[in-house]
Amino acid sequence: KAGVTQTPRYLIKTRGQQVTLSCSPISGHRSVSWYQQTPGQGLQFLFEYFSETQRNKGNFPGRFSGRQFSNSRSEMNVSTLELGDSALYLCASRELRHYEQYFGPGTRLTVT
Amino acid sequence: AQTVTQSQPEMSVQEAETVTLSCTYDTSESDYYLFWYKQPPSRQMILVIRQEAYKQQNATENRFSVNFQKAAKSFSLKISDSQLGDAAMYFCAYRSADSGGGADGLTFGKGTHLIIQP
């Protein structure tokens, strides 16, 4: 099976702009989660989706949002970008009956 | 809220030797899952091993094994016959097993940077 794919792999944006990141899960995986990884805060959970509904959400401001489509693909959006949003954004998928998550290669977002 | 602590920011081991990475966690839940993930310089997070809290038997995957001490809330990873390809950041992670997986998804430790000396 193909692994989790994320696009784009690298992105440079300016403060105040918005950005959309995309994630395609492993075939058959209906749950998609998003994580932010920074040197200072480490890995932090953003949100999880399955059945096109946000199920769980981490402690992030409302500027961070996401959605899931009927084919389980997911997008996350960050509006009004701040310098502190510069990070590696990781997407992970899992089968609903299992808890282990499989990660994509990440999207490196740089905000200038 | 659950917390995961990895007290060793960096570890170094000679190739072919054995190394143990430490992880402790704090939770009030009785049912949960624990994981070790590896993140090489490519930044791709790779699942190394998983442990269900209700299972007393320690998980093993080839050269990787865990020592799960539920009462002590300890979950260490042992890597036997270390290889150069094992060099990476290793993250310990916790996930609640309650319905919906809990509010926090995976909770990660800060990581241990493992160096393999040839």
Labels describing this entry:
heterodimer; A: mainly beta; seven-stranded mixed beta sheet; four-stranded antiparallel beta sheet; B: 118 residues; mainly beta; six-stranded mixed beta sheet; 51% strand; globular
In short:
With 112 residues, chain A is mostly beta strands. In chain A, 0% of the residues lie in helices and 54% in strands. The model of chain A has no long low-confidence stretch (mean pLDDT 95).
Topology:
The complex is a heterodimer of chains A (112) and B (118).
Chain A: E1 5-7, E2 10-13, E3 19-24, E4 31-38, E5 42-50, E6 53-57, E7 64-68, E8 74-78, E9 87-94, E10 102-103, E11 107-111
Parallel strand pairs in A: 2-11
Antiparallel strand pairs in A: 1-3, 3-8, 4-5, 4-9, 5-6, 7-8, 9-10, 9-11
Chain B: E1 3-5, E2 10-14, E3 19-21, E4 24-26, E5 32-39, E6 46-52, E7 60-61, E8 64-69, E9 74-79, E10 88-96, E11 107-108, E12 112-117
Parallel strand pairs in B: 2-12
Antiparallel strand pairs in B: 1-4, 3-9, 5-6, 5-10, 7-8, 8-9, 10-11, 10-12
How would you characterize this protein structure?
The complex is a heterodimer of chains A (112) and B (118). In chain A, a hairpin with a 3-residue loop joins strand 4 (31-38) and strand 5 (42-50). In chain A, the strands form two sheets. In chain A, strands 2, 4, 5, 6, 9, 10 and 11 form a seven-stranded mixed beta sheet that branches. With 112 residues, chain A is an all-beta fold. Chain A contains no helices and eleven strands. In chain B, strands 2, 5, 6, 10, 11 and 12 form a six-stranded mixed beta sheet that branches. Chain B has strands spanning 3-5, 10-14, 19-21, 24-26, 32-39, 46-52, 60-61, 64-69, 74-79, 88-96, 107-108, 112-117. Chain B is 0% helix and 51% strand. Chain B is globular and about 45 Å long. Chain B has no helices and twelve strands. Chain B is mainly beta and 118 residues long. Classes of the chains: A mainly beta (112), B mainly beta (118).
